[in-house]
User: Fold this.
Amino acid sequence: MAAVDKSEQAEPAAEGGIRRRDFLNIGAAAAGGVGAVAFLFPLINQMNPSADVLALAQIDVDVGPIQAGQAIKTMWRKQPIFIRNLTPAEQAAANAVDTGSLRDPQTLDERTKEGHRNWLITLGVCTHLGCVPLGAAEGEPKGEFGGYFCPCHGSHYDTAARIRKGPAPRNLEVPEYEFISDTSVRIG
Amino acid sequence: MSFPWAEEYKPKHPFMRWLDDRLPLPRMVYNATGKGYPVPRNLNHFWNFGVLAGLALVLQIVTGIVLAMHYNSNADTAFASVEHIMRDVNGGWFLRYLHANGASFFFVVVYVHIFRGLYYGSYKAPREMVWMLGLVIFLLMMATAFMGYVLPWGQMSFWASKVITGLFGAIPVVGEPIQNWLLGGFAPDQATLTRFFSLHYLLPFVIAGVVILHIWALHIHGSGNPTGVDVKSPQDTVPFHPYYTAKDGFGVFLALLLLAVLVFFLPNYLGHPDNYIPANPLSTPAHIVPEWYFWPFYAILRAFTFDFILPAKLWGVLAMFGSILLLFFLPWLDKSPVRSGSYRPKFRMFFWILILDVLVLGWCGGMPAEEPYVMISQLATIYYFAHFLIILPVLSWVEKTLPLPNSISESVLHGEAAEAAPLGAAPAKA
Assistant:
């Protein structure tokens, strides 16, 4: 031990007392640290959605059989999607609202597509804490505004699925979609 | 334990003093891998392999835990879930190849670690418990590796589980009930797969527990060293940190480089292509072999082809397990007071013959069970047992060993005029 200590002392100290060994130590530790952090990336990234999950991120839905005033629930990315054929009365009710009074101001036109104003397509996921609101199926309560009602914490959505009352912060989310024909919708 | 000259842990920061008074974890680390653990100064790179084995265990546990997030231990979907890992999971191919080749890496370093112990007499007093705990780890590793190999539920997985559990079927009278108990049925199926997955997840943590005992036992008397001479004075040791943290760090760097070559360039080199065929209980692969790390033992198993009092099948199984259990008695079979093979010329020769013998066994184990491999396996098996049961005990009586150095520092400086000379002075001319 004594001999080793002596050899360390004998190493000439450069300016500022920095030895070659200090540089090597820092270099080795830094390279090891970078390697360890790089190894963390795949360990963390493996928990992200895998390719087969992402591949399910687009679906085609035939909306032909849905009559005015009816709605269906379907699945997209393992989450419910509400596709609702609005009656003229429901559209009128939605358009009659002053958007300035809304928590998340949006018009019905902003939430539907040109030429398909009667089709209201939203995620069936309450923007409060993620429950599935009621109102899509026959006989379910539609809430005070005739749209959807979330039974978990009492959020009321109107006929444009906009939040009107209750704790939810935003309107039901409108996913990306396009009509590929008059009766066929591609979601995602 | 530590030698009396070990530096004492003296925390400077008030928080560390507070912690040391309540949970002396930093003290333990300091006394195990820090300045508080003096280690013989003459360890060569063969002493890296314990740390490398520890690294391999950690690597296997870490990659295994993330693979288990995607693997499905259902006989109908297990194979597909492994393909799902390979194709769909982000970086899944990397994690699986790392885990599969990590197993080989683990065995490579453990085999070097074991043969290091055999050469330098690391199993001798007072380190018998270190040696035996190491063998327990080795047995647990074999069980874990075998069960892990079954999980992908490919052809090799299926038939490996059938053949290996069949070993227990060789036991007289109770063999078949035991085999059925292990499998949870009459052939490997859902019950087998689920229990193997459960145990494959459990056993690495058992290994980690035994590793702690292994290191604890090691630290009682400290590491051996290439001379086999006990540490006598502070001149014989250097503190673990920074000397061996640096040396181990260098070894880790080289070992990971080799592992990376395997994972990135030869990921299936050590595997068997048949395991990419889903398990089929109606068709046995033409040539079924275990993973390479079992080949020497597989050769011993197959070396017994004739009945002699007991059935050949039972002899094979007994010899295979015996070849490892035998090593538990090694500290008492080799009674030579000289530890290191460096001072035992005859032992050294037989050591290298044993290495060759085990390599031959491994080679035969990977070959089909036909001549000439069967006969070579039989001769090699005889030699393997003869080495431990006859050669070592006899050698410890008859061998004339070389003179040992008086101390580690003497051996380090032996003949090295330059090193022995005072620092800065020219070495004396011989």
User: Anything to note?
Assistant: DSSP finds 17 helices and two strands in chain B. Chain B touches chain A through 25 residues (CB under 8 Å).
